[in-house]
């Protein structure tokens, strides 16, 4: 007997199932109509659970640094011995770095606030002399010149000012004014700091400057409407400012001065203010004082501002201001105005997709963001990133949102290390910075943002020692990995880039395959700082490195130095060793000795 055909199951719910579901939904609605609190409670729990999932996804997406388990291999491949207690693998496995996922995925895994740099460009200066007895002594960083009258309606020092009614010290005030290029620093009322380029008030009795500094009881910080004023002996005169203008130096007048500096105006009563105002009004970035003639122009190959002369050659008094120098007909005193040089400000994506990927590789805190700023100005093309940082995108780095393999950017920022990650690039610019500076810069960025500062609690707490233990080995392995696995690697030291920007930037642009335009590079020199330089307002007034930390880091420096020389490259700069073996001097004393080099005092002719 033939079996009846079986009924085929329908993919759709039956009428009975639909009725049951409808009844269940009606009961659910009635329940929440009676007690709406339940609905809002479940909604809040749902949102909280979603937030936790979102945060968890952001953290779990961060892989461990590639190559960390191979750290010994990097050293062995170079034929370099290990350093005993300072092995490169020490603590390295705990370091993490975010992987690039493209801007479309940034909601799931944002780049952690541990990659980039901005730049801690300055070094701590030596402390000011404590007490009144040592103030008359000539110091390499500042010289006390006396107690002066101040007036709230017409300030004696008319530059920037800041107050700290708990921690003001002489050193802190001097450091902030010197950082901004001012010639004088004055302290008042125990807690107020004023900066300026000239003292515009009479002397007062020393007994009237009788208030102790709020942060250093053994020092004097002026009095009521009285300033204790120091003249700053600047090691880098190029940083000196005059109001809104930046002092560039004394230069010999170019041969074709009317072409090099096309705008000019005779000024019988010449002063720096008048010449700077004239050139600003004419929209020129350079103001050159030539005795009684004011000249304006751009930095060009005819007038590149590379060969500075002794300031004594320009030290002729201004006719309209007896305390200022106005240069001569043969030697020009040059200031940079606030007019922006637009010859290097245009930027765009590459017109054709590049087939080669060039990395801009560095350890975090080594100045990668600053280098990107320079490269974009020098080439006119956007730089990309292995990561995504919304704050950098909002500040003009438009290549930040492109996937790093898009081929639309001139080079790609990366902090990655490890063979697989490095071999993904066809060439690389390897930026290396003094580890003592790089570690502090990255620590500040991690806890204070791109141009912020870590709080003192972080420096004094457990965060700083743990950070050094984890990141110091990475500084070494990062360089060793790129030297070992990188193809066509150009090594650039951050310190050399700061000191000789024109030459080093020309090398970097050459590797990128761009014909360097010298006038454009000269324009970059005038716009070099960008918006990523930290101010000196919260510099540490003590050395955060312990002797144990220094011993460990010195071992890594020697290893990197040997690796560079093994490839016939110049080793690390001398200032990577703030304390040499057998030298009992402190870092502050080392910086104090270094800052005396090249300092000159202007005398009127």
Automatic annotation (TrEMBL):
It comes from Gallus gallus. GO terms for cellular component: Golgi membrane. This is WSC domain containing 2. It holds the Pfam family WSC. GO terms for molecular function: sulfotransferase activity. SMART domains: WSC. Residues 577-592 have a biased composition (Basic and acidic residues). InterPro entries: P-loop_NTPase, Sialate-O-sulfotransferase, WSC_carb-bd. Gene3D superfamilies: P-loop containing nucleotide triphosphate hydrolases. Residues 115-137, 577-599 are annotated as: Disordered. The keyword Heme does not apply. Keywords: Membrane, Repeat, Transmembrane, Transmembrane helix. Residues 141-233, 244-338 form the WSC domain. The chain crosses the membrane at residues 37-59. Belongs to the WSCD family.
